[in-house]
Design goal:
30% strand; five-stranded antiparallel sheet; alpha+beta; 133 residues; 3 helices; three-stranded antiparallel sheet
Length: 133
């Protein structure tokens, strides 16, 4: 089945798995999804991940992270900002802050996928893919 917005599908699969309290979610792989997964891991939103290169496309297995005491997911919100029908771009000086710096925005720049903080440090703008908090 063809997906018109693979990033929105990626975020929705994670959101649905967390709502169902799954520990692991499998997602069809692509380079941009691998980059987003790496950022989520580096920022501490997921426990671990594994890229499985079987078949034509391969998959990404993500171990979701939950709070030990409250059993609530570490990721509270996943919001797609730029979509195929309406692309959202931001200059380096206009990069958004998510919850006043408590969350992250993932930006697709000429230097690859970066968080909003990294993009500000490198003074580059780009397409605002999603907000995560």
């Amino acid at each position: 089945m063809a997906v018109t917005d693979p990033i929105a599908d990626y975020l929705t699969r994670i959101r649905n798995a967390q709502m169902a309290r799954h520990r692991i979610v499998e997602i069809p792989s692509s380079n941009i999804k691998k980059g987003i997964t790496q950022i989520l891991y580096d920022q501490g939103y997921i426990l671990k991940y594994k890229f499985v290169d079987e078949g034509v496309q391969g998959t990404i297995k993500i171990a979701l992270k939950y709070d030990a005491l409250t059993k609530k997911p570490t990721i509270r919100t996943l919001e797609r900002i730029s979509s195929p029908g309406l692309r959202r771009y931001a200059k380096a000086s206009e990069l958004p802050r998510v919850i006043n710096g408590l969350g992250i925005a993932i930006i697709s720049t000429s230097r690859g996928l970066l968080t909003d903080k990294q993009a500000r440090e490198e003074n580059v703008g780009g397409e605002v893919l999603c907000f995560i908090s």
